[in-house]
Amino acid sequence: MRTQVGIVGAGPAGLLLSHLLDLEGIESVVLEDRSREYVENRVRAGVLEQGTVELLTDTGLGDRLHREALVHRGLELRFDGEGHRIDLSGLTDGRTITIYGQQEVVKDLIAARLGAGGDIRFEVEDVALDGLTTDVPSIAFTHDGERHTLECAVVAGCDGFHGICRKAIPDGVLTAYDRTYPFGWLGILARVGPSSDELVYTNHERGFSLLSVRSPEVCRMYLQCEPDEDIGEWSDDRIWDELHTRTATRNGDFTLKEGPIFEKGVAALRSFVVEPMQHGRLFLAGDAAHIVPATGAKGLNLAVADVRRLSEALARFFGSGDTDLLEGYSDACLRRVWRVQHFSWWMTSMMHRFDDHDDFQRQVQRSELAYVTSSRAAATALAENYVGLPIATLEAG
Ligand code: APR
Ligand code: PHB
Predict the structure, then answer these.
(1) Angle at Cα 36 formed by Cα 105 and Cα 162, nearest 5°?
(2) Residues forming a β-bridge with 147
(3) Does pTM surpass 0.90?
(4) What are the pLDDT digits (tens) for 303-315?
(5) At CB < 8 A and 24+ separation, what contacts does 114-119 make?
């Protein structure tokens, strides 16, 4: 088997890369170790930056997105029992965010690739890379009980944090930056309309909570919990009690609507980056190269930014043989990655309860929240990062 770009992983990064390459006339094969059903139903975050929406729209993936997604122009930060609106659009020349579950993006991408005759192999096993520092790298894998070798010109490692691509890079090449947080998020989906028109991020003495939404009939909500929290300990009643407590306002003007919970899970929070994001003919994109804590809602958007850059570099490479953009791939991506790392770490630090904080640190955190919600300059810093900084600011140089 031969193709131009062998892509490991059918998450948002791998699927979008395959789609963008197809539009450039470049062939790819996507290898995924899970089933199609599994990847289409994996519940993740759901905030798309305007730039992400524009890219999806411009490349023909906007139909269902524009029919079903919810456009938001602000968000609320709630602390000390009081809500404060951040006017995202007013502070960023009218930019907006769009709420559309990541698995919906994945479904649209799979439909588009298969509709265009794209080659995605689900449920492959024992994926292994070879010849990464040669001009003919290859990917070995097992499919339907048969071992295959896929020869390519370039391998794209889009196989997420636990994938094999990053690990295929020899020891000593990568520098890893890693931070784990002493808490996780318990996330639920509930069949109920939103209690608020915009997302509500709450800092409460019992811990962070977040009210988000998926559709007029379905809400997504999160509670700060232990990183290894046992979901079995959380009955629906306990979840609602805790959400009511953490989101309550002092003047009692907020009512949290309840509905049947049909999905529950716990995810740890982590910040992680490897540098460089490439080795020989292997290029890492998305969670394979970096993880951000979900507080900034950036994971998917960062993956999209990586593959947009990678597809441009590959178009140049296959079009003219020019390797400049490919060689500069990691440096260009990492400028955005570190900006987003800082923002996600900052939002996480500002919004959560830290058990090891002393009174001084708690007061500093409250002062920061008061500043962000009262100073136009500080609110603008939050807003411009939240809606997504422009490519020109982040990837130039
Ligand atoms: N072989 C083939 N596929 C693999 C392997 C492997 N050895 N290991 C992992 N995969 C697949 C996973 O099953 C998954 O479908 O790679 C895919 C990686 O997808 P994601 O984890 O969704 O990562 P990415 O595409 O980079 O998207 C980033 O997803 O993880 C969230 O919060 C993150 O929103 C961000 C976005
Ligand atoms: C979500 O809707 O799942 C969501 C929203 C905002 C975040 C994280 C997750 O910061």
Answers:
(1) 80
(2) 142
(3) yes
(4) 999 999 999 999 9
(5) 116/19, 116/22, 118/18, 118/19, 118/22, 118/28, 118/30, 119/3, 119/28, 119/29, 119/30
Query: Taking CA 286 as the corner, what is the angle to CA 284 and CA 290, rounded to the nearest 5 degrees?
Result: 85
178-213 pLDDT per residue, tens = 999 999 999 999 999 999 999 999 999 999 999 999
Q: Which ligand gives the minimal distance to the CA of 296?
A: 2
3 state SS of 396: coil
Query: Residue 252 and residue 16: Cα distance in Å, rounded?
Result: 45
- Is the distance from CB of 155 to CB of 165 less than 8 angstroms? yes
Of the residues 159, 161, 283, which should be mutated to test ligand 1's pocket, given the most ligand atoms within 8 Å of the CB? Answer: 159
DSSP structural state of residue 2 = B
Q: In whole angstroms, what is the distance from residue 336 CA to residue 286 CA?
A: 12
Angle CA 93–98–99, to nearest 5: 150
Report the first-to-last Cα separation within the chain, whole angstroms: 38
Q: How far apart are CA 198 and CA 2, in angstroms?
A: 48
For residues 14 and 159, the answer to whether their CB atoms sit within 8 Å is yes
Q: Is the CB of 297 under 6 A from ligand 2?
A: yes
pLDDT of residue 135 exceeding 60, the answer is: yes
Do residues 288 and 165 make contact, with C-beta atoms less than 8 angstroms apart? yes
Q: Which residues does residue 8 pair with via DSSP β-bridges, in sequence order?
A: 31, 157
Q: Is 46 in the pocket of ligand 1 (CB under 6 A)?
A: no
- Tell me the angle at which helices 12-23 and 299-320 cross, rounded to the nearest 10 degrees: 30
Percentage with pLDDT > 70 across the chain: 98
For residue 369, give the H/E element and its range.
helix 359-372
Q: At what angle do helices 376-387 and 329-351 cross, to 10 degrees?
A: 130
